[in-house]
Amino acid sequence: MHFIFHCLLFVVAVTSKSVPPPTDGLKNVFNYFIQDNGNILRNVQIAINITEDFVTSDAGRTFLLNCYNPVSDKSKVIYQQIYIESDPSTRGLFAGVQIFNRSLSSTFVNQMQIGNLSNGHIIPAGTELVIALTTDKHGALNGACFKLTIDHETSSQNIEINGADTTTKVQVVPITGFTFNIVGTLDKGSFSSGSGNIIYSAENPIVPVNAQPNGLGNALSSTIGNSVYGEMRDRKTQRLKQNFGVE
Questions:
Q1: What is the predicted pLDDT for the residue at 239?
Q2: CA of 71: how far to CAs of 61, 124, 145, 214, 219, in Å?
Q3: What proportion of the chain, given as a percentage, has pLDDT over 90?
């Protein structure tokens, strides 16, 4: 006699909850901090995908990545700003790096043009902007690769943070946290439309938190904008996704 046993497989879906928004909400210069429990972050990449025409009437847009290193570090660097910004007057898109010390005075590393817009006030749907950070064998942030894909054409630029592209020698340091904002330029930031998503990735697993992690310098951009960001899941992974829009 043969017995046939039927096994039922129960699959339990494990879902993660959303991380509560920061105290000031998810807008303008307020967004989650991304970290790995204080560990050095290696080869961070930010990919911004525009799914609805991003339109501004009064100034350009800045896609601003603020990277932080511990204040206990022996270096004088407190954070680095890596950005892509538009200039409606010239229709240009520019990539740049600026480094701030503990007194919040800055050292401008370099800025390069990576492309042009047909209309200086509009970044069209379908555009992708990528900021890919590079690290040395010690985990220090030593450069950034910027890539623009617009109207099915791709261009890129590299900026080194070790002084190779400037007469000012800049110390390279590791980062243990970062935050990302979409703001205006020239202290303006009135966006009439625009939406998309941001993909955050790194060599090591990362997780969003709603407050600045302990040990990082207290610095906040003075720029403005009516951008809003979506909530993110409380999970640790090498790839995170966040939506954005305007209010």
A1: 97
A2: 30, 39, 26, 10, 11
A3: 60
Domain-located, residue 64:
yes
Would the pTM count as exceeding 0.70?
Answer: yes
Range of the domain at 203: 33-246
Total of domains in the chain: 1
Burial of 44 (0-12, 13-18, 19+ CB in 10 A): buried
Task: Tell me the C-alpha distance between 78 and 218, whole Å.
Answer: 9
Digit-coded pLDDT (tens) for 52-107: 999 987 778 899 999 998 766 667 788 899 999 998 889 999 999 998 877 767 78
Distant-in-sequence, close-in-space partners of 231: CB < 8 Å, separation ≥ 6:
18, 19, 21, 26
Tokens matching residue 133: 């950070």
Q: Which residue has the tokens 């800045």?
A: 62
DSSP class of residue 57 equals: S
Q: How far is CA 133 from the centre of its chain?
A: 10
Is 2 within the bounds of a domain?
no
3-state helix, strand, coil in the chain (%, to 5): 0, 55, 45
Q: Is residue 1 a part of any domain in this protein? A: no
For residue 187, count other CB atoms closer than 10 A to its CB: 10
* CATH number for position 206: 2.60.120
**What whole-number distance in Å separates Cα of residue 162 and Cα of residue 151?**
33
Q: What are the beta bridge partners of residue 245?
A: 228
